[in-house]
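Shapes recur. One chain:

:::
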Amino acid sequence: MNRLADATSPYLLQHADNPVDWWPWCDEAFAEAKRRDMPVLISVGYAACHWCHVMAHESFENEAVARLMNDDFVCVKVDREERPDVDAVYMTATQAMTGQGGWPMTVFAAPDGTPFFCGTYFPRPNFIRLLGSVAAAWRDQREAVLRQGAAVVEAIGGAQAVGGLSAPLTAELLDAAAAQLHREYDETNGGFGGAPKFPPHMNLLFLLRHHQRTGSARSLEIVRHTGEAMARGGLHDQLAGGFARYSVDGHWTVPHFEKMLYDNALLLRVYTQLWRLTGDRLARRVARDTARFLADEMHRPGEGFASALDADTEGVEGLTYVWTPAQLVEVLGEEDGRFAADLFGVTGSGTFEHGTSVLRLARDVDDADPSVRQRWQEVVGRLLAARDTRPQPARDDKVVAAWNGLAITAIAEFQQVAALYAAPDDEDANLMEGVTIVADGAMRDAAEHLAAVHLVDGRLRRVSRDKVVGDPAGVLEDYGCVAEAFCALHQLTGEGRWLTLAGQLLDVALARFAAPDGGFYDTADDAERLVTRPADPTDNATPSGRSAIVAALVAYAALSGETRYREAAEAALSTVAPIVGRHARFAGYAATVGEALLSGPYEIAVVTDDPVGDPLVAAAQRHAPPGAVVVAGRSDQPGVPLLAERPALDGRSTAYVCRGFVCDRPVTSVDDLVAQLT
């Protein structure tokens, strides 16, 4: 009997027809293991994971392997994106036992959930031998197995513990973090580290803010170089926009083809802020195309943003995306086919498998002659139309609260910057206008969905699908990312209800997730008890729950004027400060928020009847210091604390600038406002 047919998780549904007697993560599964006196096999993965599919095909779809699993284990399937708390606990155990982690993750545990053997992907012959060995050890060496499990729990309890060193996150620590990133930077290819190479979005956001505060040319150049290298490489979809999860090489050429919502949201913020600060044409184009990708490919009408696009198409990785020179000629004709092959680096020998190539931008066309740019865009359109007739990768269409929060924040920032640079005579002004319209609709759709569906009895739920909310409770990153998104929407729209909702979420976080040392746990105090209560302070593929909640606390304090939220943010950030100073690559979002706190952050209110087109609003957005909040509207506009009791001077639009709750004199000219911000 397979119990996954009614799951909200597409990953679990992928396994609903396996011959394995799968259980979802639930108390009943562990009670069954206790009743049958057998260990639990916990298999953790996610829908877009290539090697998860491989292990499923090799082992979980195999009748003989399934029989071994069913006879000797209670088998539990977990979607790591739906249950990040479960994933965090057992990933820490896997890393403690093996020195590495990844997905699929394979964990053997006692009926109380205590892990005693962990691993990742196992080829079928190895997995069959492992099943036999573990079953024999459980029968014949039970005491040793349980001792090992107890030692693992003790180790992961220490690894996930709150407390320890803390210190204020000072300018000196942030400068040290930037200096460490400067040293570790890949001067040739951009980014950090070798293969596989992941987009360092949170580190780039930090370096942009560090540049704003210090004027560091080095920090800005790292962002420029990495941004261009990623955008021109195979990591970036040269036809439809959006970025793959990572590059399998060290130079961004061949991606692992899955596309994650969170990567694209965070990268949209990077390119948007680079565009805002420099006016860079490439950053503008990539920001626009990433926003379009989110709106066109990831948005689910009437809901939010889907989680991911699969790495595989019909079981073949990259099938949708790769090309040969002959295929280009077939679609474009001889002359344009040769032009495209040269432009996109498509060769006879290929850069991927079987002589195929991943498209990358091998020529600099953003600053080329207008006729070249026009030809490039026409070729892109024709190739994309042809690619759309190919089989397409599956989409994991569950809506994850935290990741939707990241996307909402990113699009809100993009909308503000796009308004700054709107120019009707631009060659692609119509395209930019179209993207801003559809992205705005997708963003608001997602926010309404989170508020109406994911917020249940004042508490957040983690996931939904087909407008039905799932059972898993929201974790700290959900509260932080969604609250930050609602603060961003409040600034963009001037609607008070988004700020009210943000405050409600933060109050729950402070009441239910806070730790005695000022930090936070990743799960609520009334959440399901796991073998340890996770509290990971490090930023990895996404901001840690702690960094996310601090970002929201900082923004909300600035927007509301309530100092207790800022005090909570400072206390929590002090628990991460030692990591920022010593391991900057794993504290990018914490450092980004630290720059905002160090800056003030600035609170900028513009009293105006034209919050979209007023030059004071444009100046505030263009010159906003790191982490600044900006609101615009009528004096005493309901639900907007920063506009309360702030009149327009002499009937003219008026800007009020405060920093750390201390205010400058109100000004009515753009020059005076810029002088206060720079």
Q: What stands out?
A: The chain has 25 helices and 21 strands. Residues 429-454 form the longest helix (26 residues). The longest strand covers residues 40-45. The chain has a mean pLDDT of 93.
